[in-house]
Design goal:
Structural class: alpha/beta
Shape: globular
Largest sheet: 7 strands, mixed
CATH class of the largest domain: Alpha Beta
Number of domains: 2
Number of strands: 15
Order of helices and strands: HEHEHEHEEHEHEHEHEHHEHHHEEEEEHH
Helix content: 40-55%
């Protein structure tokens, strides 16, 4: 081989070697990026409303999420690293939720997002999480009719809240129902389920009314309730509109002794904001109450009050947010990676003794097995538990009263009817 040939040979070999090293480095770097395995903290997003009509409910869920992260960090973090929360205000506006969800995923590169309350927000951000193959941990009871590989549902499915409450109410409160809700996808769907179930059990729905999210004037709706005089009102109003609704009931002379209210989106935080004196005697269907008597809950409540103040209350969405963070941390630890593409398999089947009882992520649906409870509001703002399922109930996202195709058509009808939104427009928005 000539001198020039040898030079070309060694130059080529060197380039091949360098190419090999560069390829290997790229693989290592890609793995490092994917697993978020640097020396820095693991970032997670907290996407809830600090302002707007939903803030009364969502602020407490932010605190519960931060509390769980603080506990994890004090015990050494995850994979030997601290967890860094990035808290974002959704401002009770699903378009803001969508923009912030994308920023958390693409710019902040979070391992997971914990957040959303209304189904209008969740349905708006769902395509974003699916597009970028990230994950949302959703802590609120909802209408069902949904599964997504990119959402872990730690709140209740309909068969873990709405449906048991119907049977209990018919056995204990009466058989004539008036349905009132905020005008968006959760209440509309919940009341479709309630109507079918009540009819099947030979009860009667004597009225159904809706108000836009954020409404405070319930005078006409309460007049219609008074005229119909049902045995019980089923309430799917969300956010601070509950204050206007319950005040209107009392101003009209309607008390729980006369017509009790069974709520599906009211918990201790809302009772405290509205006033226990106004709400005492009414009911709520939840999976957790602050009064649950388990060692895990006693520790949870005591620790929370020590951190946030003795008057701070704990609620079902707070508990679902809390154990959602803990299950995320376990899944990441088992996978050895903070990237959802790696821990998506280890999140399935995760289980723990939570403050409200044993919870398990159902591998088939990514919904949560959980206990069902009915509570009656006391004068001190806590709930006296009236009924308890005594064991975790398997989640069934799609109630069998309709086929999946029929449910899809029902949801599409709502979506199209609201101008391709998941909530009805406010009166101001509806004006030409």
């Amino acid at each position: 081989m000539s001198g020039w040939g040898r030079k070309r040979y060694f130059a080529g070999a060197f380039l091949l070697t360098m190419a090999g090293w560069l390829a290997a480095y790229a693989v290592i770097q890609a793995w490092d990026d994917r697993t978020n395995a640097g020396r820095g903290p693991i970032k997670v997003g907290i996407l809830h409303s600090r302002t707007g009509t939903m803030a009364v409910s969502e602020r407490t869920v932010i605190d519960a999420t931060l509390y769980a992260i603080d506990e994890i960090n004090k015990s050494g973090g995850v994979l030997g690293r601290q967890v860094k929360p990035i808290v974002v205000d959704g401002r009770s506006d699903w378009s803001v939720f969508a923009a912030e969800a994308q920023r958390l995923i693409k710019t902040e590169k979070v391992s997971a997002v914990f957040g959303c309350w209304t189904s209008a927000c969740r349905k708006t951000v769902k395509p974003i999480f699916e597009k970028y193959d990230s994950v949302l941990f959703y802590p609120v009871q909802y209408e069902g009719l949904e599964t997504s590989p990119n959402i872990v549902y730690t709140g209740a499915a309909p068969n873990q809240q709405i449906i048991p409450a119907i049977k209990w109410s018919m056995d204990n409160l009466g058989r004539r129902f008036f349905l009132v809700g905020s005008d968006y996808v959760f209440p509309r769907t919940a009341n479709r389920i309630i109507g079918a179930q009540v009819t099947a059990l030979r009860g009667e729905v004597v009225g159904e009314e809706y108000a836009p999210l954020g409404s405070q004037d319930f005078t006409l709706i309460v007049e219609r309730i008074k005229e119909a005089h049902p045995d019980v009102v089923f309430n799917t109003i969300n956010g601070d509109s509950n204050l206007g609704f319950h005040r209107a009931l009392r101003q009209a002379g309607i008390t729980p002794d006369d017509i009790p209210v069974m709520s599906f989106s009211v918990a201790e935080a809302e009772v405290k904001a509205i006033g226990p004196a106004i709400m005492a005697g009414d009911y709520a269907a939840r999976n957790y109450f602050q009064t649950v008597n388990t060692p895990e809950n006693r520790a949870f409540v005591a620790g929370f009050k020590a951190k946030y103040g003795r008057d701070y209350v704990t609620t079902a969405p707070m508990e679902a947010a809390y154990f959602g963070v803990k299950l995320w941390a376990r899944a990441v630890s088992e996978a050895g990676s903070a990237d959802f593409r790696d821990y998506r398999t280890t999140i399935k089947g995760q289980s723990m003794a939570s403050p409200g009882g044993t919870v398990t992520i159902d591998p088939a649906t990514q919904h949560t097995w959980k206990t069902v409870r009915i509570g009656k509001i006391r004068a001190d703002g806590d709930f006296e538990i009236q009924w308890d399922s005594q064991r975790p109930v398997r989640p069934v996202p799609y109630p069998s009263i309709l086929s999946r195709r029929q449910w899809t058509d029902f949801l599409d009808g709502l979506y199209q009817g609201w101008g391709k939104n998941w909530a009805a427009p406010s009166p101001a928005e509806a004006k030409p």
